[in-house]
Protein 1
Amino acid sequence: MDGRPATSDTIAAIATAPGTGGIGIIRISGPESAALLGKLFTPRNPHSSFESHKLYYGTIKDRQGRILDEVLAVYMRAPHTYTREDVVELHSHGSHLVLQSILTEVLSCGARAAASGEFTKRAFLAGRIDLTRAEAVIDLLQAQTGSGVRLAVDQLQGALYDAVASIRHTLVDLLAVVEVAIDFPDDDVEIIDVTSMQSQLQEKVIAPLVQLIGYADKGKVIREGVNVVIAGRPNVGKSSLLNGLLRDERALVTAIPGTTRDTIEELISVKGIPVHLVDTAGIRSHEDVVEELGIERARRKLDEADLVLFVLDLDAGVSDLDRELYQTLGDKKRILVLNKLDIAGDKQRTVIRNEFGTDTLVEISAREGTGLDDLLEALYVEILGEKEGIAEQVSCAPNLRHRIILEKTLAACEQLRATLDLGAPADLVAVDLQVALDHLGDIVGLTTPEDVLDALFSRFCIGK
Ligand SMILES: Nc1nc2c(ncn2[C@@H]2O[C@H](COP(=O)(O)OP(=O)(O)OP(=O)(O)O)[C@@H](O)[C@H]2O)c(=O)[nH]1
Ligand SMILES: [Mg+2]
């Protein structure tokens, strides 16, 4: 990959999270790193220079000679560093005030405060990582479940880069063949074998592109999770269900209809998928202003839901209010949760099953905790549209930016297929191939415009 011109100033930031911790780290990168270390750091055992990648014990002093903290310092000489520049890290005690005072000193000695993601941006600009790997760093920092971490680590290891590189490779090979045909137009031998080109295009370009685009949907779910709203009329057991799924008495449960006033949101992991669970106020018409506000919120949450757990009370049966609410779900994905199985009779169960038989139904007792595993299983299948284990089969997870580029590349390849079908001249085939290649180059950052890069790296935290 071509490196873009690197920046020449020296940047610094606190790399550890705000708050109190065992240790905190200041990270410095750029040509002045070693000089800054020499100015600020007094090693316990004096020596003339710092060996690369070796920890030194000593103190950091301000310009008045006051000790700010005892630290471990490491100097890492370019290019074997995160940014490929000279890097220094100062490991101090994990007090944010101490870290701030050290950073202030580093900045007053000539470093510039790093912008969000600037260290990773430098790694990209220096050509150490491609854009998919830089994005994997953000995903890794923001992953909410084990599956999200696994996908991010795979992408950091180059899973998406490799998949894209293999498609690029085929397109470049095809372009080479076509260019020979352009250069030797009068050759007797038919240089372009259209059938072979079509089959290579289909097997090694179009099919993998379609697969990657398919992974994007599942990847989004694994990375960002889904909003699941628990809804239903008052007293059917919505809050009891939330508590059951959380295995915690998070929401108040009483026999009084209208107990839940505000929405309550919690995150759970359903086999590695982050699920944002929302318990809502039971919906009914009511005079009480506070309850009315809660109901308004419940309706808004319902609008935003990816999936609704619509709760019915098996013991009380289905009322007109239940039916009315059910109608408002429209075509939202839903699972019908038939609660209070422990006190329900067989007759009510059959009646409800007959009325709502086309939906996915799960019978539970939120109070006793029965049926909750079946409900989670049904939730997983509804979310991913497939059976268990699919999260493990997704080998990389293109994000929205990748997806848009993959779709443009696919459109270009379909155009190319049509051009080949028409038996168009080699130079037109070459144009289509070049368009596909240009799009694909955007994914790894070969041709990505500066403003897109800025927007992308600004999603990082400072110090990364
Ligand atoms: N027997 C039985 N009772 C249940 C079950 N789940 C909930 N309940 C009871 O039903 C009543 C209402 O439960 P909640 O969880 O507060 O119901 P809700 O839907 O959140 O009610 P609102 O917040 O008022 O809309 C309480 O008395 C619960 O103990 C169940 O599985 N079996
Ligand atoms: Mg409630």
Note: The first strand starts at residue 11 and ends at 14.
Protein 2
Amino acid sequence: MRARWLILLLLGACSTEPGDELDDEDFLDGKADGASTVNIKATHLDVDLAELTAVATIELEKYGHVSLEVGGLTIEDVTDNRGHRRYTTTGGKLRVSNVRGPLVVTYAFEQQDKADGLLPGGSTVIWPYFCGNLFPCHSQPADGTTFTLAIDGVPAGKTAVYPASIDAEAPPYMLAWAVGTYGKTSLGTTAAGTKLSAYWLPGGELAARAGTKNLVKVVDWYEKTLGPYSFGREMATVAVIWGEGLYGGMEHHPFFHVAKDAMSDEVTQAHEAAHGWFGDGVRLRCWEDFVLSEGTTSYLSARALSIANPALEAKIWADYQEELDAAIAEGGAPAWPAGCNQIDIIRDKLFTNLPYMQGAFFYKDVAAAVGAEVLDGVIGRFYKKYKNKPASMQDMVDAIERETGFDPKPIVDARLRKRF
Ligand SMILES: [Zn+2]
């Protein structure tokens, strides 16, 4: 132990000469890409929507080399505790070596047209790995970050709906804003004190009210069955205008987005709300674990809505079965592919309805064997254990077997590992 301390002291003494080791040329050139870089702790964004400029203050988990995704940004200045820093931007990465203290990046961004950043409709979507079109980031969901967000330059007569702060670690793709001519109503408060609201665009009030009829009951069930919501005291559904290629909703907690045309759909509303617990609350360890987000939320939303209004249950599962049949006919990657971050979730066709629907039916089959309430207990304890941390689908499968004695492997093989 003492010998190691001595080496550390000697190394420390060598590298603390003023100005020494400021710029590591190999790292800046991208030649040392295997070199370990530092994870993000907190992301603070000051955005000017009139100018499409922003200042990002990135707090790091420790000091060291920093590599951030900035593919769609024009970097104007980079500073840390030691002042202006030299940086490189090659291959969509901003590299700064030996960073001390928060990294402050001043930059410009642009509107994007492929559902990959700031959209023409006034809202943002950066799922799955397009955060670098909006702010300097690590797109891997395992590297959670807290956020603060401030937005200036909102056009007169419009409202920007966004969280001023997200105090628990979240996946980078969770952050979003929406700008529009919004109407708003309060939906009520859960027993745990979470206030729910709905925001609609002109002409959208009836649809918003229809889709959120049971939302307070649904969220109340999530809180009672799974555990406390970790992204603040308020939650809202926000109608947005999306272009082609996007449908349903997006888990931008605490103010999740639902496409204007899906606002009246109770299942979509309950699904996006459930991501506050799975996908956002419990993050994906690897992209291959996508089913832990989408399968779990598809199951939980069906379960919560069926308890809030038992008349809905048969129709929800009949619709899920139809969606499953269509997804199988279309094919794609298995709902739960092997490996860790070897897959491109879009190019390798993991983003199909298979993880959603095979995932939902996986849990339904397990519930048929062990009892739905027993399974609720397993999922609830899982959430409390991994809240604001990454987890894998294997962790869930293991928890089911450990806690119930039921081996779900045959269901895993038939539904999740099989390629259709
Ligand atoms: Zn989802």
Note: The pocket of zinc ion is lined by residues 251, 271, 275, 294, 297 (CB under 6 Å).
